[in-house]
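Narrative of accomplishments. A recurring question from our advisory board has been how the design workflow behaves on a single, concrete structure rather than in aggregate. To address it, we present the structure tokens for one chain from the evaluation set, followed by the sequence designed for it. No filtering or post-editing was applied between the two.
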């Protein structure tokens, strides 16, 4: 989580709490001079040694995406997560994060780049759309064609930011249509929610927990131990 978690948090959490199979870095973005030094330090393999981490990138177009992938691959990373869910207007306004979901042709060009980089295991973190859930459903055929390890869906819209409740019906529809492993994300704060999700969606790949893991660092361990 941008501005909240970093390599030190991940390491401490992994060593002291556990229960998490995979951590994701806050998104890296390509600025005029490349990746910010602070973000570069956070993603250095030496800063993440021994911790299961996947670096995340955010990009508005194929050029930015390529530069970020080159940057990470040169460091030795072989898994990369693409953020298509950030609702911050600073990102969506530039067509990044949830802002790219309204532009299927741009999403398609990033997915095409993934097919070129077969040596990388790609995943996607996304919302239902920026303005409407129709955006995610329009992308399903191209997502199904893409070489994705998994997709994580936070079933809210970008314009909602964090208001309202996650849209379970749209999540269920997406689950039925997506041909890749699917991870649920959004408002998980308690163990019983995870069991409910497992019952409702037996093929669910997993859950991603954001804010509640910062507030309750033992949450993943407790979920795993039940
Ligand atoms: C301050 C803040 C920073 C975030 N930064 C990221 C990020 O860098 N990458 C990402 O995929 N999601 C980011 N998120 C979104 C969370 O990963 C998650 O999708 C969202 O908070 C909903 O899940 P939760 O209810 O478990 O927190 C951020 C959320 C917050 C509140």
């Amino acid at each position: 989580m941008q501005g909240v978690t970093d390599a030190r948090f991940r390491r401490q959490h992994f060593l002291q709490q556990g229960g998490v199979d995979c951590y994701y870095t806050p998104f890296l973005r390509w600025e005029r001079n490349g990746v910010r030094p602070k973000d570069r330090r956070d993603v250095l393999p030496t800063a993440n040694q021994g911790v299961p981490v996947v670096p995340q990138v955010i990009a508005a177009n194929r050029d930015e995406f390529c530069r970020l992938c080159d940057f990470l691959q040169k460091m030795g990373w072989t898994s990369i997560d693409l953020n298509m869910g950030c609702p911050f207007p600073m990102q969506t306004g530039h067509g990044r994060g949830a802002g790219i979901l309204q532009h299927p042709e741009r999403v398609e060009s990033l997915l095409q780049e993934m097919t070129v980089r077969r040596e990388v295991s790609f995943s996607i973190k996304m919302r239902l759309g920026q303005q409407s859930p129709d955006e995610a459903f329009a992308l399903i055929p191209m997502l199904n064609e893409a070489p994705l390890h998994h997709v994580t869906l936070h079933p809210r819209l970008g314009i909602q930011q964090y208001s309202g409740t996650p849209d379970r019906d749209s999540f269920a529809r997406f689950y039925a249509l997506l041909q890749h492993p699917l991870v649920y994300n959004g408002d998980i704060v308690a163990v019983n929610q995870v069991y409910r999700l497992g019952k409702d969606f037996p093929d669910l790949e997993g859950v991603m927990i954001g804010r509640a893991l910062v507030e309750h660092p033992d949450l993943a361990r407790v979920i795993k131990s039940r």
